[in-house]
């Protein structure tokens, strides 16, 4: 570039077609030579690395721009980064991306940190640059991980390798939100067992890690009352079963009898509310070994094998009492650190049990101080929340920056509102989205979606969340520094 070129001039854009044409014309070159030329051409399409106090120029620039990002502070109180991943083999880089390559809700997160006086640079993890990426990460004080579960693998990377390196970053004293340990232990279904004795738990919540324990335990609990069986690795309700004895012949006291293998079960799966019937023996076989001659014919979209790989690989099954009032709906608490910022009541469609999105459920939104749920909110925040991280083996970790807790009503009908018992159905801190930003993600009918497509009202709400995240993050960073 000549000395008279503008500093604001953007790199020349090379179309995919021109790259392919040139590659074809260079057919006589070696594969290595072709690769170097193609990489150089692709680099022309890259914008500058995200501005900020940490030099990120050694990393590939995936984003086309940083639209909406506030200027970084000249003298940040702490230096941070928000880590994303662009899945190169998927349309739009994955189902959570704006057209510029950023995750659709990254801007409010980053701006919240910047507004609190900290820097926050937007970077992408590229698995071919694993070592370089984590060398750069060592220069930050905190890292916010916003890689949707499964996307690292989908892009050809190794989630275990990423997690191991991120654990080393955390061990070095750099804050990671959420750390791999927090995601694993809060997201695991056996977290429900670890909070079973709290106000938000049920004491008869069991976890199984072996075929023998599952077969013995399930036959005993199933004979006593309807159950909910949850696999650990599913998503959107797949592998979560609401189960009843078709004959209804429950015993009066727990342990009085165990089910026989030929007793018939009526099963509802939470991902789509479909119903099917199987014997106890067939259900156990499906959960352990999947579809085969012994498990019968299944209409579920899942494949079973919930214990595959053993405990270390996430193979586990949780067995919890069925709360019949789930048909009235469940509550999702949206949380920033130790603060509730909104409550969503999710009611299943008529005749359904699960309120998973896409099943026709009805969502009603409430403010954090909704009087109807005041007793639950107060008890949860003051009594149980301080105990959750230690109970999960995470005493040294702060609660996540942005996470959710789902509650199910466990009290009998007619219980006074102030005395109602709500139990935790699930914690989620693995890349929970900010729904106010959904207009910014690309899909077939909006392939060019950007941050600018978010309405002013929704943008203000998302920025309010970001501001609170920044305040909470700064408090944690300052406390750690002391």
Order of helices and strands: HHEHEHEHHEHHEHEEEEHEEEEHEEH
Helix content: 25-40%
By DSSP (H or I, 4+ residues per run), the number of helices equals 12
Number of strands: 15
What spatial form do the alpha-carbon principal axes imply?
Answer: globular
Number of individual domains: 4
Estimate the mean pLDDT confidence.
89
CATH architecture of the largest domain: 3-Layer(aba) Sandwich
- State the separation between the terminal residues, measured CA to CA: 48 Å
Helix/strand-derived category reads: alpha+beta
CATH class of the largest domain: Alpha Beta
Assess the beta-strand content as a share of residues.
Answer: 15-25%
Ranges where pLDDT stays below 50 over 5 or more residues in a row are: 1-19
How is the largest sheet built, in terms of strand order?
Answer: 5-10-6-7-8-9
Describe the sheet with the most strands: 6 strands, antiparallel
Provide the gyration radius in Å. Answer: 25 Å
CATH topology (fold) name of the largest domain: Rossmann fold
Organism: Polarella glacialis (Dinoflagellate)
Protein name: DUF6815 domain-containing protein
Domain DUF6815: 328-433
Give your account of this protein's structure.
This is DUF6815 domain-containing protein. Residues 328-433 form the DUF6815 domain. It comes from Polarella glacialis (Dinoflagellate). The chain has 482 residues and is an alpha+beta fold. The chain has four domains: 9-45, no CATH class; 48-178 and 440-473, Rossmann fold (3-Layer(aba) Sandwich), CATH 3.40.50; 185-191 and 326-439 and 474-481, ATP-grasp fold, B domain (D-amino Acid Aminotransferase, Chain A, domain 1); 203-323, no CATH class. 29% of the residues lie in helices and 18% in strands. It is globular, with a radius of gyration of 25 Å.
């Amino acid at each position: 570039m000549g000395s008279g070129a503008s500093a604001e001039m953007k790199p020349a854009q090379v179309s995919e077609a021109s790259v392919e044409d040139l590659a074809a014309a260079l057919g006589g070159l070696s594969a290595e030579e072709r690769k170097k030329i193609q990489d150089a051409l692709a680099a022309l399409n890259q914008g500058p690395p995200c501005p900020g106090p940490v030099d990120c120029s050694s990393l590939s620039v995936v984003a086309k721009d940083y639209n909406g990002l506030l200027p970084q502070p000249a003298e940040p109180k702490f230096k941070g980064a928000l880590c994303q991943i662009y899945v190169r083999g998927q349309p739009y880089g994955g189902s959570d991306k704006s057209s510029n390559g950023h995750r659709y809700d990254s801007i409010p997160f980053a701006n919240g940190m910047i507004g609190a006086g900290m820097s926050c640079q937007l970077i992408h993890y590229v698995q071919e640059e694993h070592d370089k990426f984590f060398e750069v990460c060592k220069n930050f004080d905190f890292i916010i991980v916003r890689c949707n579960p499964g996307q690292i693998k989908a892009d050809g990377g190794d989630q275990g390798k990423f997690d191991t390196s991120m654990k080393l970053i955390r061990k070095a004293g750099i804050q990671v939100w959420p750390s791999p340990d927090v995601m694993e232990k809060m997201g695991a279904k056996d977290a429900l067992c670890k909070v079973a004795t709290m106000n938000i738990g049920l004491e008869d919540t069991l976890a199984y890690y072996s075929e023998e324990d599952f077969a013995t335990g399930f036959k005993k609990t199933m004979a006593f009352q309807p159950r909910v069986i949850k696999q650990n690795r599913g998503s959107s309700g797949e592998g979560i079963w609401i189960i009843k004895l078709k004959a209804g012949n429950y015993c009066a006291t727990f342990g009085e009898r165990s089910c026989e293998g030929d007793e018939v079960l009526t099963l509802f799966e939470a991902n789509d509310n479909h119903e099917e019937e199987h014997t106890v023996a067939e259900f156990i076989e499906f959960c352990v070994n999947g579809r085969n001659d012994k498990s019968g014919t299944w209409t579920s979209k899942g494949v079973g094998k919930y214990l595959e790989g053993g405990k270390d690989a996430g193979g586990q099954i949780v067995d919890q009492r069925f709360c019949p009032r789930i048909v009235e709906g469940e509550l999702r608490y949206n949380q920033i650190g130790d603060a509730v910022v909104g409550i969503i009541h999710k009611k299943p469609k008529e005749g359904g049990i699960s309120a998973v999105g896409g099943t026709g459920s009805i969502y009603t939104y409430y403010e954090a101080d909704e009087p109807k749920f005041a007793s639950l909110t107060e008890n949860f925040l003051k009594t149980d929340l301080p105990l959750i991280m230690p109970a999960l083996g995470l005493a040294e970790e702060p609660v996540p920056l942005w996470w959710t807790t789902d509650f199910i009503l466990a009290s009998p009908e007619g219980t006074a509102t102030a005395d109602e018992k709500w139990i935790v159905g699930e914690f989620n801190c693995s890349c929970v989205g900010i729904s106010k930003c959904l207009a910014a993600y690309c899909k077939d009918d909006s392939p060019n979606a950007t941050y600018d497509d978010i309405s002013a009202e929704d943008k203000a709400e998302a920025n309010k969340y970001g501001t609170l995240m920044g305040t909470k993050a700064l408090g944690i960073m300052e406390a750690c520094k002391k």
